[in-house]
Write a structure and sequence with these properties.
It is built from nine helices and eleven strands. It is α/β, with parallel strands linked by helices.
Length: about 240
């Protein structure tokens, strides 16, 4: 990592689906280990890291609602799925010598400490990865919105949205071979074009609080370090 570090504190949003790896469900320990290694490298470079991880590899509230689950209970099940993923990531980090602290949006002692901005910041300043689980703690809000909220709260310089795609495209590149990638795009363009980067609430929160977003391919080892070094990979969302 270069001395001209671009960011001091970041909020990294990881998708639960990516954590499933090639198996398509559950937790792929190889992928988990790759993530942990990249995150440890970031902390060792002097960057403070907070993480929000989704739960779609285990349970997705909206999908459950479409199959007859009560929406509130379905979303609560999704929140618990994010806690499972957070515990797995913290275990993988600690196994390679990187301290981590799991904070939960709903009190779950002794699984994790109840989230507060100050506890998360203290953990990061102490060299730990702050893993912020449970979404916002409320139904009807996605983990993208949870990531936006936590990013604003902990005063992150940027929200890094790690996905399996290398940025934002005019259409789904996995379905449309003619889709073209944006290097930069505004929050308003994301909304006006109907691009499914994040849900509207999450995008609006980032815009209102001037929190830039970088969407990048987290599944390629080394990409996190490249983004943190300021390389123009992925897509930057800003004003």
């Amino acid at each position: 990592m270069t001395q001209t570090r671009k960011f001091n504190r970041v909020l990294l949003k990881l998708s639960g689906e990516s954590l499933a790896g090639a198996q398509g469900h559950g937790i792929d320990t190889v992928r988990l280990g790759q993530y942990a290694g990249q995150i440890k490298q970031a902390v060792e470079s002097g960057i403070e890291v907070a993480i929000v991880i989704g739960g779609g590899n285990i349970f997705r509230g909206l999908k459950g609602a479409s199959q007859g689950f009560d929406r509130v209970k379905g979303d609560q099940m999704g929140m618990l799925a994010t806690v499972i993923n957070s515990l797995a990531l913290s275990s993988a980090l600690e196994a390679i010598g990187q301290p981590a602290e799991v904070l939960t949006a709903i009190a779950m002692h002794p699984i994790g400490h109840h989230y507060s901005k100050w506890r998360a910041i203290d953990a990061m300043k102490a060299g730990k990865v702050a893993i912020l689980s449970g979404g916002t703690g409320n139904p009807f809000f996605t983990t993208d919105t949870g990531a936006s909220l936590r990013g604003v709260e902990v005063e992150a310089d940027v929200m890094l949205k790690g996905t399996r795609v290398d940025g934002i495209y005019t259409a789904d590149p996995e379905k449309d071979p003619k889709a073209t990638k944006f290097d930069t795009i505004t929050y308003d363009e994301v909304y006006n074009r109907g691009l499914k980067v994040m849900d509207l609430t999450a995008t609006a929160m980032c815009k209102e609080n001037n929190l830039p977003i970088i969407v990048f391919d987290m599944d390629t080892p080394g990409n996190l370090a490249r983004v943190l070094a300021g390389e123009s990979i992925g897509t930057l969302v800003t004003v």
